[in-house]
Write a structure and sequence with these properties.
17 helices, 41% helix, six-stranded mixed beta sheet, elongated, 3 domains, three-stranded antiparallel beta sheet, alpha/beta
Amino acid sequence: MLGKRSAQGCLFSPEQRLRHKIGEESFYAVRADHRHELFRDEDFAMLYCSDNGRSSVPPSLLAVALLLQTFDHASNQEASDRAKFDQRWQFALGIGDDEVPFAKSTLCLFRNQLIIHKNAKFIFHKGIEFLRTHGFMKKHGAHIVLDTTPIFGKGAVQDTFNMLAEGLRQVLKVLATLESTSIEQFALANDFRRYIAPSYKGSLAVESETNVITDVDVLPANVHDHQNATQLIDNSAATVQAPIEGIIGDGAYGNVEARVDAQTKGHTIVAPVSRPAHTGRFTKDDFTITLETSTVSCPAGHTTTTWSPAKVRTQRGTIFVNRAFRFSRAQCAGCALRAQCLKPSTPFRSISVHEQSRLAGCNRQKHFNERKNFVCRIASVLFSSTALRAWYVSVSALRVTLVRRKCSSS
Protein backbone atom coordinates (compact mmCIF):
# COMPACT_ATOMS: atom_id res chain seq x y z
CA MET A 1 0.00 0.00 0.00
CA LEU A 2 1.19 3.51 -0.76
CA GLY A 3 3.22 5.02 2.07
CA LYS A 4 3.49 8.79 2.41
CA ARG A 5 5.97 11.16 3.97
CA SER A 6 4.88 13.21 6.92
CA ALA A 7 4.47 16.91 6.24
CA GLN A 8 5.74 17.60 9.76
CA GLY A 9 9.37 18.70 9.79
CA CYS A 10 11.95 18.29 12.55
CA LEU A 11 13.82 21.13 14.20
CA PHE A 12 17.01 19.04 14.45
CA SER A 13 16.87 17.47 10.99
CA PRO A 14 20.00 17.48 8.78
CA GLU A 15 18.35 20.12 6.61
CA GLN A 16 18.70 22.61 9.45
CA ARG A 17 22.09 21.55 10.81
CA LEU A 18 24.11 20.68 7.69
CA ARG A 19 23.11 23.28 5.10
CA HIS A 20 26.13 25.51 5.59
CA LYS A 21 28.51 22.54 5.79
CA ILE A 22 27.26 20.87 2.58
CA GLY A 23 26.82 24.09 0.61
CA GLU A 24 23.81 26.02 -0.64
CA GLU A 25 24.59 25.43 -4.33
CA SER A 26 25.51 21.76 -4.10
CA PHE A 27 23.62 18.99 -5.89
CA TYR A 28 22.40 17.71 -2.53
CA ALA A 29 21.10 21.10 -1.39
CA VAL A 30 19.15 21.63 -4.61
CA ARG A 31 17.50 18.21 -4.22
CA ALA A 32 16.73 18.93 -0.56
CA ASP A 33 15.15 22.29 -1.34
CA HIS A 34 13.05 21.13 -4.28
CA ARG A 35 12.30 17.45 -3.69
CA HIS A 36 8.73 18.31 -2.69
CA GLU A 37 8.24 20.05 -6.04
CA LEU A 38 9.84 17.24 -8.03
CA PHE A 39 8.13 14.22 -6.51
CA ARG A 40 4.93 13.67 -4.57
CA ASP A 41 3.98 10.31 -3.14
CA GLU A 42 0.60 10.51 -4.88
CA ASP A 43 2.36 10.66 -8.26
CA PHE A 44 3.45 7.03 -7.81
CA ALA A 45 0.10 5.64 -6.65
CA MET A 46 -0.18 3.46 -9.81
CA LEU A 47 2.72 1.35 -8.53
CA TYR A 48 0.96 0.24 -5.35
CA CYS A 49 -2.18 -1.54 -4.22
CA SER A 50 -4.73 0.98 -2.98
CA ASP A 51 -6.60 -0.98 -0.31
CA ASN A 52 -4.39 -3.57 1.42
CA GLY A 53 -0.85 -4.49 2.44
CA ARG A 54 1.79 -2.80 4.56
CA SER A 55 2.55 0.86 3.93
CA SER A 56 5.51 1.18 1.58
CA VAL A 57 8.59 3.31 1.93
CA PRO A 58 7.43 6.70 0.58
CA PRO A 59 8.10 6.56 -3.18
CA SER A 60 9.03 10.25 -3.27
CA LEU A 61 11.99 9.36 -1.01
CA LEU A 62 12.99 6.43 -3.24
CA ALA A 63 12.77 8.60 -6.37
CA VAL A 64 15.25 11.07 -4.87
CA ALA A 65 17.44 8.14 -3.79
CA LEU A 66 17.58 6.93 -7.41
CA LEU A 67 18.88 10.34 -8.50
CA LEU A 68 21.48 10.36 -5.72
CA GLN A 69 22.53 6.83 -6.63
CA THR A 70 23.04 7.83 -10.25
CA PHE A 71 24.88 11.05 -9.36
CA ASP A 72 27.28 9.28 -7.02
CA HIS A 73 27.66 6.12 -9.17
CA ALA A 74 26.62 4.01 -6.19
CA SER A 75 25.59 0.36 -6.20
CA ASN A 76 22.30 -0.69 -4.62
CA GLN A 77 24.02 -1.78 -1.40
CA GLU A 78 26.12 1.36 -1.30
CA ALA A 79 23.00 3.50 -1.82
CA SER A 80 21.35 1.83 1.16
CA ASP A 81 24.48 2.38 3.26
CA ARG A 82 24.84 6.01 2.23
CA ALA A 83 21.24 6.75 3.17
CA LYS A 84 22.08 5.51 6.67
CA PHE A 85 25.55 7.02 7.16
CA ASP A 86 26.25 9.77 4.58
CA GLN A 87 25.16 13.19 5.86
CA ARG A 88 24.87 14.56 2.31
CA TRP A 89 22.35 11.87 1.41
CA GLN A 90 20.44 12.36 4.66
CA PHE A 91 20.35 16.09 3.91
CA ALA A 92 18.99 15.55 0.39
CA LEU A 93 16.50 12.87 1.48
CA GLY A 94 15.30 14.88 4.48
CA ILE A 95 15.80 12.09 7.03
CA GLY A 96 17.35 11.97 10.48
CA ASP A 97 20.65 10.42 11.60
CA ASP A 98 18.87 7.57 13.38
CA GLU A 99 16.61 6.56 10.47
CA VAL A 100 17.07 3.51 8.24
CA PRO A 101 15.05 4.68 5.23
CA PHE A 102 15.23 1.66 2.94
CA ALA A 103 16.94 -1.65 2.30
CA LYS A 104 18.79 -2.55 -0.87
CA SER A 105 15.91 -4.78 -2.00
CA THR A 106 13.39 -1.94 -1.52
CA LEU A 107 15.31 0.33 -3.90
CA CYS A 108 15.62 -2.48 -6.45
CA LEU A 109 11.91 -3.23 -6.24
CA PHE A 110 10.98 0.42 -6.77
CA ARG A 111 13.22 0.67 -9.83
CA ASN A 112 11.79 -2.56 -11.22
CA GLN A 113 8.26 -1.23 -10.73
CA LEU A 114 9.14 1.79 -12.84
CA ILE A 115 10.50 -0.54 -15.52
CA ILE A 116 7.50 -2.89 -15.51
CA HIS A 117 4.96 -0.06 -15.59
CA LYS A 118 7.02 1.76 -18.24
CA ASN A 119 6.86 4.95 -16.23
CA ALA A 120 10.49 6.00 -16.57
CA LYS A 121 9.53 9.10 -18.52
CA PHE A 122 7.39 10.24 -15.58
CA ILE A 123 10.52 11.23 -13.63
CA PHE A 124 11.80 12.96 -16.75
CA HIS A 125 8.59 14.96 -17.20
CA LYS A 126 8.57 16.00 -13.55
CA GLY A 127 12.06 17.38 -14.01
CA ILE A 128 11.02 19.30 -17.12
CA GLU A 129 7.99 20.69 -15.29
CA PHE A 130 10.28 21.90 -12.52
CA LEU A 131 12.63 23.60 -15.03
CA ARG A 132 9.68 25.28 -16.74
CA THR A 133 8.27 26.53 -13.43
CA HIS A 134 11.61 28.11 -12.54
CA GLY A 135 12.12 29.79 -15.92
CA PHE A 136 14.81 27.55 -17.42
CA MET A 137 12.78 26.69 -20.55
CA LYS A 138 12.51 28.85 -23.64
CA LYS A 139 9.09 30.35 -24.25
CA HIS A 140 9.70 31.04 -27.93
CA GLY A 141 11.31 29.21 -30.86
CA ALA A 142 13.66 26.40 -29.83
CA HIS A 143 16.64 24.83 -31.61
CA ILE A 144 17.05 21.10 -31.02
CA VAL A 145 20.29 19.13 -31.41
CA LEU A 146 20.11 15.33 -31.89
CA ASP A 147 22.79 12.76 -31.11
CA THR A 148 23.27 9.05 -30.32
CA THR A 149 25.90 6.90 -28.63
CA PRO A 150 26.28 3.14 -28.12
CA ILE A 151 25.38 1.35 -24.89
CA PHE A 152 27.58 -1.63 -24.12
CA GLY A 153 26.77 -4.70 -22.06
CA LYS A 154 28.25 -4.74 -18.57
CA GLY A 155 29.06 -8.43 -18.71
CA ALA A 156 27.64 -11.90 -19.16
CA VAL A 157 24.82 -11.35 -16.67
CA GLN A 158 21.73 -13.44 -17.41
CA ASP A 159 18.57 -13.65 -15.36
CA THR A 160 15.63 -15.96 -16.08
CA PHE A 161 14.01 -13.54 -18.50
CA ASN A 162 17.26 -13.07 -20.45
CA MET A 163 17.64 -16.84 -20.73
CA LEU A 164 14.08 -17.18 -22.02
CA ALA A 165 14.75 -14.45 -24.56
CA GLU A 166 17.91 -16.25 -25.71
CA GLY A 167 15.92 -19.46 -26.11
CA LEU A 168 13.34 -17.57 -28.14
CA ARG A 169 16.09 -16.25 -30.42
CA GLN A 170 17.14 -19.82 -31.13
CA VAL A 171 13.53 -20.72 -31.97
CA LEU A 172 13.27 -17.70 -34.28
CA LYS A 173 16.37 -18.85 -36.16
CA VAL A 174 14.75 -22.23 -36.83
CA LEU A 175 11.43 -20.69 -37.91
CA ALA A 176 13.20 -18.23 -40.19
CA THR A 177 15.14 -21.09 -41.80
CA LEU A 178 11.90 -23.00 -42.43
CA GLU A 179 10.48 -19.97 -44.24
CA SER A 180 13.72 -19.44 -46.19
CA THR A 181 14.24 -15.96 -44.86
CA SER A 182 16.64 -14.19 -42.53
CA ILE A 183 15.95 -14.00 -38.82
CA GLU A 184 15.83 -10.19 -39.07
CA GLN A 185 13.11 -10.26 -41.75
CA PHE A 186 11.14 -12.95 -39.91
CA ALA A 187 11.34 -11.02 -36.62
CA LEU A 188 10.27 -7.79 -38.33
CA ALA A 189 7.26 -9.46 -39.98
CA ASN A 190 6.12 -11.09 -36.72
CA ASP A 191 6.92 -8.33 -34.23
CA PHE A 192 9.88 -10.09 -32.57
CA ARG A 193 12.55 -7.47 -33.28
CA ARG A 194 13.12 -6.77 -29.57
CA TYR A 195 14.50 -10.29 -29.13
CA ILE A 196 17.17 -10.14 -31.83
CA ALA A 197 18.73 -6.73 -31.32
CA PRO A 198 22.37 -7.49 -30.38
CA SER A 199 22.83 -4.29 -28.41
CA TYR A 200 21.39 -0.84 -27.91
CA LYS A 201 22.28 2.80 -28.26
CA GLY A 202 20.97 5.85 -26.48
CA SER A 203 19.62 8.88 -28.31
CA LEU A 204 18.95 12.34 -26.94
CA ALA A 205 17.66 15.75 -27.95
CA VAL A 206 18.98 18.95 -26.39
CA GLU A 207 17.73 22.54 -26.63
CA SER A 208 20.84 24.34 -27.81
CA GLU A 209 20.41 27.70 -26.04
CA THR A 210 19.27 26.53 -22.59
CA ASN A 211 21.22 23.22 -22.66
CA VAL A 212 18.09 21.45 -21.40
CA ILE A 213 17.81 17.79 -22.41
CA THR A 214 14.34 17.63 -23.99
CA ASP A 215 14.11 13.87 -24.65
CA VAL A 216 16.02 10.60 -24.26
CA ASP A 217 15.29 7.20 -25.73
CA VAL A 218 16.82 3.80 -26.52
CA LEU A 219 17.30 2.29 -29.98
CA PRO A 220 18.45 -1.15 -31.11
CA ALA A 221 22.08 -0.87 -32.19
CA ASN A 222 21.32 -2.40 -35.59
CA VAL A 223 19.03 0.40 -36.80
CA HIS A 224 19.98 3.73 -38.29
CA ASP A 225 20.47 6.65 -35.91
CA HIS A 226 17.80 8.76 -37.57
CA GLN A 227 15.03 6.15 -37.16
CA ASN A 228 13.51 7.82 -34.08
CA ALA A 229 14.44 11.39 -35.07
CA THR A 230 10.80 12.33 -35.73
CA GLN A 231 9.79 10.97 -32.33
CA LEU A 232 12.58 12.91 -30.60
CA ILE A 233 11.49 16.09 -32.38
CA ASP A 234 7.80 15.61 -31.51
CA ASN A 235 8.59 14.83 -27.88
CA SER A 236 10.92 17.83 -27.69
CA ALA A 237 8.21 20.12 -29.04
CA ALA A 238 5.84 18.82 -26.35
CA THR A 239 8.55 19.26 -23.72
CA VAL A 240 9.52 22.86 -24.50
CA GLN A 241 5.93 23.82 -25.42
CA ALA A 242 7.28 26.14 -28.07
CA PRO A 243 7.71 25.96 -31.87
CA ILE A 244 10.83 24.13 -33.07
CA GLU A 245 12.68 26.61 -35.27
CA GLY A 246 15.67 24.47 -36.15
CA ILE A 247 17.06 20.94 -35.83
CA ILE A 248 20.75 20.11 -35.90
CA GLY A 249 22.29 16.66 -36.22
CA ASP A 250 25.45 14.93 -37.34
CA GLY A 251 25.88 13.03 -40.61
CA ALA A 252 23.58 10.23 -39.43
CA TYR A 253 20.68 12.68 -39.58
CA GLY A 254 21.77 14.18 -42.91
CA ASN A 255 20.42 11.51 -45.23
CA VAL A 256 17.38 12.10 -47.40
CA GLU A 257 14.99 9.91 -45.40
CA ALA A 258 15.59 11.85 -42.20
CA ARG A 259 15.16 15.15 -44.01
CA VAL A 260 11.93 14.05 -45.70
CA ASP A 261 10.51 12.80 -42.38
CA ALA A 262 11.32 16.13 -40.74
CA GLN A 263 9.90 18.11 -43.66
CA THR A 264 6.55 16.33 -43.36
CA LYS A 265 6.41 17.75 -39.81
CA GLY A 266 7.31 21.22 -41.03
CA HIS A 267 10.95 21.10 -39.84
CA THR A 268 14.31 21.43 -41.57
CA ILE A 269 17.31 19.40 -40.41
CA VAL A 270 20.70 21.08 -40.57
CA ALA A 271 23.30 18.34 -40.96
CA PRO A 272 26.37 17.60 -43.07
CA VAL A 273 25.80 15.56 -46.20
CA SER A 274 28.04 12.57 -46.78
CA ARG A 275 30.74 13.17 -49.37
CA PRO A 276 31.70 10.76 -52.16
CA ALA A 277 34.71 8.56 -51.44
CA HIS A 278 38.02 9.88 -52.72
CA THR A 279 39.28 7.61 -55.49
CA GLY A 280 41.78 9.94 -57.10
CA ARG A 281 39.26 10.73 -59.83
CA PHE A 282 36.53 13.34 -60.22
CA THR A 283 33.63 12.89 -57.84
CA LYS A 284 30.03 14.00 -58.17
CA ASP A 285 30.90 17.26 -56.42
CA ASP A 286 33.16 18.21 -59.36
CA PHE A 287 30.19 18.17 -61.77
CA THR A 288 27.74 21.05 -62.24
CA ILE A 289 24.15 19.85 -61.86
CA THR A 290 21.37 22.18 -62.98
CA LEU A 291 18.05 20.75 -61.87
CA GLU A 292 15.94 23.45 -63.54
CA THR A 293 17.15 22.49 -67.03
CA SER A 294 17.98 18.83 -66.24
CA THR A 295 21.58 19.19 -67.35
CA VAL A 296 24.89 17.97 -65.97
CA SER A 297 28.25 19.47 -66.96
CA CYS A 298 31.62 17.80 -66.36
CA PRO A 299 34.93 19.50 -65.43
CA ALA A 300 36.00 19.35 -69.08
CA GLY A 301 33.00 21.42 -70.14
CA HIS A 302 30.90 18.65 -71.72
CA THR A 303 27.16 18.76 -70.99
CA THR A 304 24.52 16.06 -71.12
CA THR A 305 20.73 16.06 -70.87
CA THR A 306 20.38 12.29 -71.31
CA TRP A 307 18.98 10.53 -68.27
CA SER A 308 16.83 7.57 -67.32
CA PRO A 309 14.81 6.84 -64.15
CA ALA A 310 16.45 4.57 -61.58
CA LYS A 311 14.47 3.16 -58.66
CA VAL A 312 16.32 2.86 -55.36
CA ARG A 313 14.94 1.11 -52.28
CA THR A 314 16.37 2.04 -48.89
CA GLN A 315 16.86 -0.34 -45.95
CA ARG A 316 13.67 1.03 -44.43
CA GLY A 317 11.75 0.17 -47.60
CA THR A 318 11.32 3.71 -48.96
CA ILE A 319 11.48 3.89 -52.76
CA PHE A 320 13.01 6.88 -54.51
CA VAL A 321 13.08 7.39 -58.27
CA ASN A 322 16.41 9.01 -59.06
CA ARG A 323 17.71 10.31 -62.38
CA ALA A 324 20.75 8.57 -63.84
CA PHE A 325 22.51 11.03 -66.20
CA ARG A 326 25.04 9.64 -68.64
CA PHE A 327 27.57 11.19 -70.98
CA SER A 328 27.96 9.71 -74.46
CA ARG A 329 30.83 7.44 -75.42
CA ALA A 330 31.96 10.03 -77.95
CA GLN A 331 32.18 12.75 -75.30
CA CYS A 332 34.24 10.58 -72.97
CA ALA A 333 36.42 8.83 -75.60
CA GLY A 334 38.28 11.92 -76.75
CA CYS A 335 38.18 13.88 -73.50
CA ALA A 336 41.49 15.33 -72.32
CA LEU A 337 40.54 14.68 -68.71
CA ARG A 338 39.43 11.08 -69.23
CA ALA A 339 42.21 9.62 -67.04
CA GLN A 340 41.09 11.83 -64.14
CA CYS A 341 37.46 10.80 -64.55
CA LEU A 342 37.16 7.13 -65.62
CA LYS A 343 38.83 3.79 -65.19
CA PRO A 344 40.46 2.55 -68.44
CA SER A 345 37.74 -0.13 -68.83
CA THR A 346 34.78 2.24 -68.29
CA PRO A 347 33.34 3.59 -71.58
CA PHE A 348 31.41 6.60 -70.25
CA ARG A 349 30.65 8.57 -67.07
CA SER A 350 27.27 8.51 -65.33
CA ILE A 351 25.96 10.69 -62.50
CA SER A 352 23.03 9.80 -60.25
CA VAL A 353 20.84 12.69 -59.09
CA HIS A 354 18.57 11.92 -56.16
CA GLU A 355 14.83 12.50 -56.39
CA GLN A 356 15.12 14.77 -53.34
CA SER A 357 18.44 16.32 -54.31
CA ARG A 358 17.28 19.84 -53.46
CA LEU A 359 16.39 18.72 -49.98
CA ALA A 360 19.55 16.64 -49.57
CA GLY A 361 21.84 19.45 -50.64
CA CYS A 362 20.42 22.23 -48.50
CA ASN A 363 22.15 23.51 -45.36
CA ARG A 364 25.11 21.18 -45.78
CA GLN A 365 27.19 22.63 -42.99
CA LYS A 366 25.44 25.82 -41.93
CA HIS A 367 25.71 26.44 -38.19
CA PHE A 368 26.51 22.74 -37.70
CA ASN A 369 29.85 22.82 -35.89
CA GLU A 370 29.11 25.69 -33.51
CA ARG A 371 25.96 24.06 -32.10
CA LYS A 372 26.97 20.42 -32.38
CA ASN A 373 30.09 20.69 -30.22
CA PHE A 374 28.23 21.51 -27.03
CA VAL A 375 25.77 18.61 -27.35
CA CYS A 376 28.74 16.25 -27.53
CA ARG A 377 29.78 17.53 -24.11
CA ILE A 378 26.27 17.01 -22.75
CA ALA A 379 26.17 13.52 -24.26
CA SER A 380 29.48 12.68 -22.60
CA VAL A 381 27.89 13.46 -19.22
CA LEU A 382 24.58 11.72 -19.90
CA PHE A 383 26.19 8.66 -21.49
CA SER A 384 29.09 8.33 -19.07
CA SER A 385 30.61 4.99 -18.18
CA THR A 386 27.78 4.24 -15.76
CA ALA A 387 25.02 4.80 -18.31
CA LEU A 388 26.97 3.27 -21.16
CA ARG A 389 27.18 -0.13 -19.50
CA ALA A 390 23.93 -1.95 -18.95
CA TRP A 391 23.44 -5.14 -16.99
CA TYR A 392 20.27 -6.40 -18.65
CA VAL A 393 18.92 -6.69 -22.18
CA SER A 394 15.80 -4.57 -21.68
CA VAL A 395 14.76 -1.39 -23.46
CA SER A 396 12.59 -0.36 -20.50
CA ALA A 397 15.47 -0.86 -18.04
CA LEU A 398 17.87 1.11 -20.22
CA ARG A 399 15.31 3.89 -20.58
CA VAL A 400 15.06 4.11 -16.79
CA THR A 401 18.87 4.32 -16.60
CA LEU A 402 19.03 7.16 -19.13
CA VAL A 403 16.21 9.10 -17.47
CA ARG A 404 17.97 8.83 -14.10
CA ARG A 405 21.20 9.99 -15.72
CA LYS A 406 19.39 12.91 -17.34
CA CYS A 407 17.67 14.00 -14.14
CA SER A 408 20.84 13.78 -12.07
CA SER A 409 22.81 15.81 -14.64
CA SER A 410 20.24 18.61 -14.96
